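Input record, target 12 of the design panel.
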């Protein structure tokens, strides 16, 4: 049956045109019930085969607000109507994706019914009826159809919290219940903890004591409506940006504002006005006399409460200046940085948080609803008030809590319990917390994904060897050099002397795209994961292990498929020619960095592989120096390496990661291959190439580095990467670690390198500042990075051996893929750092230690130090809690903090001796405390 729907719309030129859309209705859309007697077919994705189970029909708001409950195994046999699916997609894409995951899981009985295309369930909007009312009516009609279609032997229940919708359903002969009533009927009280309460209920939740709403005080300013925010932004009265909370001080936040070209400091929870880290906010500037100098802001103690929350002022201009513990406001302090307060939330960044409940006595009675405060492991997140019927079971557990609302009369946001992770302090539990906090998908690969893999054992076939697009390079002396114990080897090298005195040098990369095909479940999964994640004690793969450790891994003495970049180079590392080819290789050796370095250093060794390594190293040194001469930065990072017990997985030792010449040798050829491939793909695909850029740091970003350098008598030129690189080379101190420390500080001033689609930017913006390269991409690690998979497809297409998938013609889709890759890459880095912090705590828990540290940042009540031996950074306090800090004075220019009487002084980059010990100032929140010896 064909329905025509006519509507009018206005064109860009202002003309009104009439459009007619055709809507097809069918009578052969199946209900999904295996026991249906009306001839409906059944697929693997269907409802329960039990007559006795109630079929649930959900309205849109139930899905949007109760997704945590729906994901619980107790909620089953659910009909998801297409009208609901469409509404959810339009209102919240994250919830939509979670709902689709439920509907596509054959183990969960969630069935999608296309009510909008069934002739008996489609409803037309009535005159004067709102879209919301029309959709509610469509849901009721579908519920009634199910009830009539399946007969009285089956119970169909509409779940809605909308009073009017429920009332109409009952009047129309449909069984309907609220979420809470239905969950209570299941006889599982713990499920009630998962229910999101309406925001109005927050009025009664501000304190454990029963406070009457009339007695509650206004704590925060009311958020401005979007209409007023939009007007304020257009008039320049308000400024928009993403709120970032200081990881050392949760009462200090920054909003990067393009409208004023600087970061706005937001100081105190009152001025943050219920904004969370990551929220996009509207900010109003405070009067200049209330602006803060960034360096005067104090460090916050781990056990600080929200002591700066006070009654909200009426306007930003009236907001009092709230100081943290240990902070004074000297009169001579000159206002420097814009300071403001949040007046509205443009986009929320709420998600689920990991942590534990604040210890409290068990309330009288058994099984009743108790109020509790949830404390996130992330100190930037405020405490969250929840209600639970499982208090006794949760007090010693790491749990997940989601935020529901934050009333301006409530000191804390309101949320609900989602699930339990495990025992507090257990390493596996704490590792899972790291993964959840950083949105890392560590689930086993699905059967659909694994079905995409070739059968094992796999070997190179005769078809591979005779394929005209693939060159047989098994005769070459290829070897790989990787970290010790590496099993996912995705790159190898060869270096062959030529008769003309030049060298043939090849970079050979695992040919992952030979096995990962576009549009398959394997490709979709890799695209979503984006990257492999490396934790201290394990690796979370982007691709299944049979691919990463066997089929694709370039192990020694086995034939493998590769994608090769091969140069002819002079002895001075000048490139004569470059060619690209799919290949078959057979690695002669899989060496670790230590083994390769030992071979190169041992003059007694004269075998062919060692000679190749020495030739490669000689060329790499020339290439590296040439890169540095062009302006490439040689930066440094505080990378930590653990020695792990193979049985207990506990850390046995910890230290800074050592970089050898062998590391730099491999890095140099990988960089060269990435640059060569970037040039090749951009030449052929100027608007759809995936490249990687490193934006130049702004003057404001480099200011902390310049201030620190000036304080220790250094003059750094930051006019270009070349000028900065030369300045860093000249930055010599009295001890050998001084230069590395300066480079670490320089690294922290840099912008993040990001992936982008070449069509989204102009060529001058392609620059990779750190490498001083006009073009760069990622080609050399397709086993662990999806960006490289995309680049392999582009390179193959540029050689004429591959047809580019349709997605490369869809610019918005490519941009979306780039954004996801950047998000996943950043999260993987954060997870790796959090894993290091977790194992650092485990290591030092029974090992209190005295060691040397270097001061990297001065604050008014102490300083932040870096511990070179262990790669650890943290605060050292000079004032105790409650101390007004009056005995200490900060010299901003000299970057020193000294006692008033001049008896003691500490300066930036100076050496201090500290004591390191794990303490627990707040229950369930251990930290590594650093104190002066």
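The sequence produced for target 12 reads:
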């Amino acid at each position: 049956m064909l329905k025509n729907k006519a509507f009018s719309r206005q064109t860009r030129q202002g003309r009104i045109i009439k459009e007619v859309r055709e809507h097809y209705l069918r009578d052969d859309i199946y209900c999904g019930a295996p026991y249906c007697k009306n001839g409906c077919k059944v697929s693997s994705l269907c409802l329960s085969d039990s007559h006795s189970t109630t079929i649930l029909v959900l309205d849109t708001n139930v899905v949007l607000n109760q997704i945590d409950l729906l994901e619980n195994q107790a909620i089953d046999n659910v009909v998801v109507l297409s009208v609901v699916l469409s509404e959810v997609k339009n209102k919240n894409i994250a919830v939509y994706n979670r709902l689709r995951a439920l509907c596509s899981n054959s183990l969960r009985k969630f069935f999608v019914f296309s009510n909008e295309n069934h002739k008996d369930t489609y409803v037309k909007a009535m005159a004067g009826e709102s879209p919301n009312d029309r959709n509610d009516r469509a849901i009721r009609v579908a519920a009634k159809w199910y009830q009539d279609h399946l007969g009285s032997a089956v119970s169909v229940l509409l779940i809605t919290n909308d009073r009017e919708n429920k009332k109409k359903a009952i009047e129309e002969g449909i069984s309907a219940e609220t979420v809470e009533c239905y969950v209570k009927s299941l006889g599982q009280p713990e499920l009630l903890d998962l229910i999101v309460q309406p925001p109005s209920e927050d009025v009664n939740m501000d304190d454990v004591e029963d406070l009457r709403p009339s007695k509650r005080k206004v704590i925060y300013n009311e958020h401005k409506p979007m209409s007023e925010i939009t007007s304020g932004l257009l008039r320049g009265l308000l400024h928009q940006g993403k709120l970032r909370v200081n990881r050392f001080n949760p009462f200090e936040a920054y909003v990067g504002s393009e409208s004023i070209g600087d970061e706005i400091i937001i100081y105190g929870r009152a001025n943050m006005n219920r904004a969370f880290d990551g929220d996009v906010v509207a900010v109003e500037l405070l009067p200049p006399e209330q602006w803060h100098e960034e360096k005067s802001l104090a460090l916050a103690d781990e056990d600080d409460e929200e002591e700066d929350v006070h009654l909200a002022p009426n306007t930003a201009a009236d907001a009092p200046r709230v100081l943290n513990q240990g902070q004074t406001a000297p009169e001579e302090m000159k206002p420097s940085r814009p300071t403001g307060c949040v007046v509205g939330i443009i986009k929320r960044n709420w998600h689920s948080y990991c942590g534990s409940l604040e210890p409290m006595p068990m309330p009288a009675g058994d099984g009743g609803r108790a109020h509790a405060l949830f404390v996130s492991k992330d100190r930037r997140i405020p405490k969250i008030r929840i209600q639970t019927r499982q208090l006794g079971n949760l007090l010693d557990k790491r749990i997940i809590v989601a935020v529901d609302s934050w009333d301006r009369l409530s000191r804390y946001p309101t949320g609900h319990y989602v699930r339990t992770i495990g025992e507090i302090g257990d390493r596996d539990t704490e590792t899972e917390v790291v993964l959840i906090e950083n949105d890392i998908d560590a689930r086993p690969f699905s059967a659909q994904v694994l079905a995409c893999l070739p059968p094992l054992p796999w070997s190179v076939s005769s078809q591979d060897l005779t394929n005209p697009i693939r060159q047989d390079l098994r005769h070459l002396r290829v070897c790989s050099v990787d970290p010790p114990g590496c099993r996912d080897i995705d790159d190898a090298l060869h270096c062959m002397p030529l008769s003309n005195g030049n060298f043939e040098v090849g970079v050979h990369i695992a040919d992952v795209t030979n096995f990962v095909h576009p549009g398959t479940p394997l490709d979709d999964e890799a695209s979503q994961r984006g990257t492999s994640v490396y934790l201290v004690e394990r690796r979370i793969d982007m691709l299944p292990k049979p691919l990463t450790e066997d089929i694709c891994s370039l192990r020694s003495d086995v034939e493998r498929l590769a994608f090769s970049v091969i140069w002819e180079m002079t002895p001075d590392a000048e490139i004569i020619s470059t060619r690209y080819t799919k290949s078959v290789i057979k690695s002669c050796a899989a060496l670790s960095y230590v083994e390769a370095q030992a071979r190169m250093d041992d003059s007694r060794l004269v075998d062919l592989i060692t000679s190749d390594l020495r030739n490669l190293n000689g060329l790499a040194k020339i290439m590296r120096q040439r890169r540095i001469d062009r302006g490439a930065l040689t930066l440094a990072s505080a990378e930590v390496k653990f020695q792990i017990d193979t049985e207990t997985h506990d850390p046995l030792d910890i230290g800074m990661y050592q970089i050898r010449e062998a590391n730099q040798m491999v890095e140099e050829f990988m960089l060269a291959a990435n640059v060569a491939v970037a040039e090749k793909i951009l030449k052929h695909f100027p608007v759809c190439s995936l490249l990687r850029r490193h934006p130049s740091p702004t003057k404001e970003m480099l200011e902390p580095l310049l201030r620190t350098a000036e304080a220790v008598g250094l003059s750094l030129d930051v006019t270009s990467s070349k000028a900065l690189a030369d300045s860093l080379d000249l930055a010599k101190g009295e001890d050998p670690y001084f230069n590395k420390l300066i480079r670490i500080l320089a690294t922290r001033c840099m912008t993040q390198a990001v992936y982008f689609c070449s069509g989204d930017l102009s060529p001058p913006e392609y620059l990779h500042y750190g490498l001083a390269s006009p073009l760069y991409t990622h080609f050399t690690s397709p086993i662990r990075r999806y960006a490289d998979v995309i680049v392999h497809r582009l390179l193959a297409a540029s050689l004429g051996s591959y047809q580019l998938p349709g997605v490369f013609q869809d610019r918005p889709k490519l941009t979306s893929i780039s954004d996801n890759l950047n998000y996943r890459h950043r999260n993987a880095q954060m997870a790796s750092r959090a894993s290091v912090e977790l194992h650092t705590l485990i290591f030092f828990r029974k090992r209190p230690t005295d060691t040397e540290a270097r001061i990297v940042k001065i604050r008014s009540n102490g300083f932040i130090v870096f511990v070179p031996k262990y790669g650890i950074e943290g605060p050292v306090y000079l004032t105790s809690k409650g101390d007004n800090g009056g005995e200490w004075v900060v010299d901003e220019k000299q970057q020193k903090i000294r006692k008033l009487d001049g008896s003691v002084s500490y300066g930036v980059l100076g050496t201090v001796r500290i004591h390191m010990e794990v303490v627990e100032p707040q229950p369930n929140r251990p930290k590594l405390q650093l104190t002066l010896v």
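The first strand starts at residue 2 and ends at 10.
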